Amino acid sequence: MLGTIGVSSIEDLFKEIPASLRLDRPLALGEGRSEQEVFDELRALAGLNVSCEDEVSFLGAGMYDHYVPALVDSITQRSEFLTPYTPYQPEISQGGLQAMFEYQTAISELTGLPISNASVYEGPSAVGAAGYVAKLTNGRPKFVVSRGVHPHSRMTLATMAHAWGVEVIEAPLSDGLTELPALDQGVSAVIVQQPNFLGVVEDLESLAAQAHGVDALAISACDPLPLALLRTPGECGVDIAVGEGQSLGNRLDYGGPSFGFFATTDALVRRVPGRISGETRDVDGKRGFVLTLQTREQHIRRERATSNICTSQALNALAGAIYVSWLGRRGIVELVELMLQLTAYARERLAAVPGVTVLHQRPVVREFAVALDAPVEQVLVACRRAGIGAGYPLGGDYPELGEALLVAITERRSREDIDRLAEALGAAVASANKASAGAPA
Amino acid sequence: MLGTIGVSSIEDLFKEIPASLRLDRPLALGEGRSEQEVFDELRALAGLNVSCEDEVSFLGAGMYDHYVPALVDSITQRSEFLTPYTPYQPEISQGGLQAMFEYQTAISELTGLPISNASVYEGPSAVGAAGYVAKLTNGRPKFVVSRGVHPHSRMTLATMAHAWGVEVIEAPLSDGLTELPALDQGVSAVIVQQPNFLGVVEDLESLAAQAHGVDALAISACDPLPLALLRTPGECGVDIAVGEGQSLGNRLDYGGPSFGFFATTDALVRRVPGRISGETRDVDGKRGFVLTLQTREQHIRRERATSNICTSQALNALAGAIYVSWLGRRGIVELVELMLQLTAYARERLAAVPGVTVLHQRPVVREFAVALDAPVEQVLVACRRAGIGAGYPLGGDYPELGEALLVAITERRSREDIDRLAEALGAAVASANKASAGAPA
Amino acid sequence: MTDDQLTIYERSKPGRRAFVAPVLDVPERDLDELLPEAMRRSAPARLPEISEPEIVRHYNRLSKRNFDLDTGFYPLGSCTMKHNPKLHERIAALPGHARLHPAQHPSRAQGALELMWRLQDALGEIAGLPHVSLQPSAGSHGELAGVLLTRAYHEDRGEHRTKVLTPDTSHGTNPATVTMGGYEVVKVGTDERGNVDLGDLRAKADQDVACLMLTNPSTLGLFETGIEEVQRIVHGVGATLYYDGANLNAIMGICRPGDMGFDIVHFNLHKSFTQPHGGGGPGAGPVAVSDRLEPYLPVPQVVRRVPEGNGAEPHYDLDFERPKSIGRLRGFQGNYGVFVRSYAYIRSLGAPGLRDVSENAVLNANYLVARLREEGVLEYLPVAYDRLCMHEFVLSGGPMKRDLGVRTLDLAKRLLDFGVHPPTVYFPLIVDEALLVEPTETETKETLDEFAEIVSTILKEAANDPEVARQAPYSTPVRRLDEAAAARRPVVRQQLD
Amino acid sequence: MTDDQLTIYERSKPGRRAFVAPVLDVPERDLDELLPEAMRRSAPARLPEISEPEIVRHYNRLSKRNFDLDTGFYPLGSCTMKHNPKLHERIAALPGHARLHPAQHPSRAQGALELMWRLQDALGEIAGLPHVSLQPSAGSHGELAGVLLTRAYHEDRGEHRTKVLTPDTSHGTNPATVTMGGYEVVKVGTDERGNVDLGDLRAKADQDVACLMLTNPSTLGLFETGIEEVQRIVHGVGATLYYDGANLNAIMGICRPGDMGFDIVHFNLHKSFTQPHGGGGPGAGPVAVSDRLEPYLPVPQVVRRVPEGNGAEPHYDLDFERPKSIGRLRGFQGNYGVFVRSYAYIRSLGAPGLRDVSENAVLNANYLVARLREEGVLEYLPVAYDRLCMHEFVLSGGPMKRDLGVRTLDLAKRLLDFGVHPPTVYFPLIVDEALLVEPTETETKETLDEFAEIVSTILKEAANDPEVARQAPYSTPVRRLDEAAAARRPVVRQQLD
Ligand SMILES: Cc1ncc(COP(=O)(O)O)c(C=O)c1O
Ligand SMILES: Cc1ncc(COP(=O)(O)O)c(C=O)c1O
Predict the structure, then answer these.
(1) Are A83 and A96 in contact (CB under 8 A)?
(2) pLDDT digits (tens, 9 = 90+) for B360-382
(3) D232 interfacial to chain A (CB closer than 8 Å)
């Protein structure tokens, strides 16, 4: 091959690189390894993690241990879905483009909004993306963000808003529900979460109405599974519904890759970030799908694009679409109702545990907060010894709640698991208090 | 649908079944379960097994813990290979038929014989199948079978030979090598194994020559990986080479499914059992593949077929073909030489352990036998406590060897593993003897 | 781009590779010392030299030249091409199943043994016969087991029998098995309703008969209504009654071979119990038998041991102490990976689900007949025996051949152009130009409707130009292949040099 | 058979389902009591009603309407469509990785944290910049991180800068990111050799400039030979120098952005480090930075803590105590599943392997140029800048359009008929009718030869009838699609009723 090129060595191919810049040593990465050795090494690392297969986990806080049906893996592992690039050549990408179109339809149905894109990165950055659309839409200087929005989403939005010179004002929670401050024409968007981070179902409609009262956009982060049962953002008058898609057929993967969804009204369609698949016809009149409304996007509009997003999360969104088809129109309701029942049972069961108090008596779907009469960290350690991941400690994000714990219940958790949690919590709180009582004053 | 059929109930469809025969109760199998429940239940059962992932295993005895590369799974899991039936319609089965053709080529290369079928069930039944071909070929009343042939193969052959009225005569091993008795014209076939069950490399050529001396067929069961290095059955004048294919890219699966291979000479091609893929052309002159020489088979020849086999092990044979392509012409030699070196190290290492004696000082490839100065079962129990599956106890099959153990070394076992085995064996033998010494006479 | 037809040997290039060897961490010895040259092959096996990306592309391209069940309708009669749930692949791949060594001590393989024991139990219940061996590797292997069990049974009673009866509708493996089992095949006729000809059976059933091999529903897809009389005749001469389980999909939970008087049943786990066919295997062919045949079952048997008193846990074991056993039919414990899938299937469905399977299989078959009738197809392709069918049915292409000059083979090949896998053709042998159609329970009404319309379209097309079908297929990767030439000068491996 | 184009909604039939709910084992409460009707949606989401077999077939059929890397050549410039080793999928699926909850306590996620820490370390070494954050989700997200880091850096020093420079060859995400990062884009020209126009750069580099975003090799596939001078100019005005890592595949182990003076580098793990593209993601866009930017990296950072003395084991943790951090760019710790694959890749190749990657990527690109020249292709499709290229190169379809009346788009569409994925078209913008070709290191010589021949065939064909290319493709599932109509009246979801 060198001969055909007309050089005498590989070295010659790099001669345009100034010698002063050449690396004069091998990278400090060691030798290559055989497949078997690499597998063993990375399996050993996996073995150092305590996954939801290794303990009874009640962790949620935005990502949930749902059962991912086998057909999701078998389909997404097909090389025709796994290995292509973004479908720039629609004639040979109809499979992916149609799958996107079907995904958009599912998100549209779940959110009750007419427009969905083909995915954004994940939940919190989706909130940032929604904020950017608000900024582009009305250019106002303030976001009002509920404290019920996922802390990661609030932080992500703040990071981006700072660059835009937009101020972020936090609306407090009162007894678990968002309480908006007086709004004014300076407010670009009101951003809430449904159910909120503490698991409580918000009154999305009144929050949206208050936003619209000052012509601000109403933006809601949503957990897509509960939407199968809850009043939809669309019904509530929300302008943009975004969210974390992991709970739809994506594994936990220590936080990613999953997907974010982005749904909105017809009014905002030309400001949507990222890919959108649209239906059209080919020269023979045959139905087909293409990436559409591309004049929004970076590769066409460059500095005037409505977002910089390029690669997003197509394969994860596909998993989501397969998953909701697997659940189906009835199944998704059955699943969420099942979680509703399990969660209700768990809330009652824990409420009965001495030293455990349920934080607010409001409707929740699959997650709720409790206060403990003992240091959460101590209790968690004790529960881990019993093989239980008791939940997400709220102290860091919500010091105002004191020693509080967020408990998530998916269909993977049985009554027995919940009873074990109750016993473990009870024992842990009791012994923690015994210890401190015993401790010298 | 019932209306279209013209019946009023499903029941009516079964009315030809005499009422007296109808089952008047549900099957005693309980209710159906959700995917998640079935997965959890069968994962729990898997958890009750100690697999080669859970201990350092030196078990072999016909099936080996080799590394199966990921691409084998990803290819064999493609529905186009996983779900079709036997390729009765060649025009829409070219993928499977060409894969069979390529598999046959690989087996032919490994065995040094011109003809391979597309697979039989597995190793021991392949020995039986070879015996049946011998019976069909010369109808003689005796098989001479080496004691070095896998006990399961000898038992399987005996089971079938009994039905044919063929007597099975066992040829003893002397210092690990087959010693044939005087043969006569009553011998239909001489059946040996390479390497034999104790891991020793046999002198296939002289055994085949002795068989041919009385016009009997020379049949050899072979372990396919060592064939990458060993003199081939073809070079040695063997008429039929069969064997267990598991070590070629198939997982252990507690013994199956794997595949058996069947290779032979041109002379016997029309007596081969099972499917054979052959090259041909279509009406446009395009190359294609079909199931060929079908007049051997049950669906054509019925009671005059050369075998009753129908469904065999196509997917497992495919895995074997992928695996040898992955290893490649050089890689397969490197792999077997690696095992040769590891095995030599292990044999020396164990020989140095007090109370452990290597049984015969003859060339072996990846398996060898040792004698212990203590009860094998006791030693195995002790090794298990140390997380080691020390090997296969030979007492049941070869009482004449006393307290003996068969140890297999694959590329999955490291020097450290082998050293651990040596220490565990040494400790176990010592403590067993201490115990018995301590015991009242 | 690259010619899809190149073999992997034709893609091979010296020096390329996928495999990288693990590092050798022991002192290296001289090869000649470990394995003298005289023991080594003279030249390396000429395996392909190719990189992982090229291997993947090679097989991906091959896969696109295969039609598969996950892509379209596959009504291959007698093969029960039902959907293979993806869950089963996930479960079978768990290391606790997939990397369990078959020689592992039973005390360390309790999960596997319990699963096998539970599967034996479930299959026994489905068959109505209490004792099960999972060992046989496929249906025909199960048949061989059955014939050998029969032999052992008679020999044990000092009887020497020489013949086995099989109906003229039987599958090829039945007579082939009989011969392999050391018996002579005697064919029994079929009456005008498609049942075993009882007169002929009586005439042929004598003291030399060891067994009658039957499948019910028969390969005609019809329930053997005279089964009770058949049973009396066969048992009357002291022969065993063998049930070929390939058609079990029609009657699960509805009636049971054991209750019909069968002594031996084989199951095709790769048919009724969803092991994917893999393009020709793997499968598994467990057998269930009655008490009188139990002593002869192969070794080892999976058993559940309940220790005496003291509330000790029951455990599972392999039993080799079976003095009357026929011995082994293969190595180790059988196709365990198949057992895992089939047990997962039985657990998923439970009793009601299994009954639904058979009800829907029979419903779909009868509905398809009705739709074909509506489409006027039966005019040229009459149902061989016009009765309610069970899970499959047989059409005769005789009239089509006579009136349209189109053979069953032509119809089959033309179906390929419509993206349908043809039914089984030219079997059973007693039906002229036979077409054996088994839709299975996992197909939808829309699929059945469409199939009926496609067949009718092909017949209409043939009515005005039979050549279209005669020259079919057109849209497949290759067109009709010359099988005669292939058999005349067999090329069964790549030529290399 | 069934129309491959039906959507899953069009396949839906009332009452069908795949999902079976686990049994509810707690006392059931009244729904209204748990969730008052006022809080519930008025109608169920109209999701499909469909069985597992039909879902599988639906997606299987869709998959057959996609071209993929595992099937054929995919020289999509700037996208580095290299082979994705199958091992990576196996490893990523291990429950210890795949079912690890992101909120798991760090002490219980030591394997994941160690893997991330090792990956940070390796990426830092490859980039020549010591500090790495794995958080960004893709390349453009990494760019945003870079711009925000730059802002934080300047603000921390009390500087207020308003402009970011990007070459006119830059990828669209660069300017889009600049705007999103709150800066104004200033375009820098390209000189006749394809390098950054240093004169123009000097003219535009002033105290208002916060950053220059560059990729080297550039999107023209050329090494920026003036990089040292560029670096002096940019740093001379106190701006940061940003490296877009999309083209890192050309230089791994050969030279390092850090050594060139770059302050910030983003990686595309889904390009250089083999995360499969998934039809548009997932990816990951980690950033590596120099010491002066380290304080501003996102939270949390994965750190390795070595306890004081007493030989206690070092452990891994998430560090949130970063007062100057820009904060978060997303939830949790980033696309961990991608990290697993990329780390497996780095481990498999090691230092020599990574260098081989870049050497072969550059060898393949230059070889392909040479073959295209041999085939006479460059006559109509000249290389935009005729220098030794790095891992990719740009052809101009200008002459082809002028002399043959065939545009780059037509050539691309005609390539589809030959089973090749076309190169990137109409990018970079500064090249007329641009065609950006990146073969990658995992392609064989035969594939490159064949591609050169195909392009030459298409040009010959066009020479005697341009309509062939203008009307192409012909053999694809659909032919040219009306994108204008799609955008005019957008139909972006299934209409249901
Ligand atoms: C009726 C019948 N019996 C027996 C068999 C043989 O089963 P197997 O292919 O599993 O050996 C078949 C398979 O086609 C069959 O249809
Ligand atoms: C040069 C260049 N920069 C940036 C990007 C954006 O990367 P991503 O798609 O991962 O956001 C790309 C991807 O096409 C690219 O080619």
Answers:
(1) no
(2) 999 999 999 999 999 999 999 99
(3) no
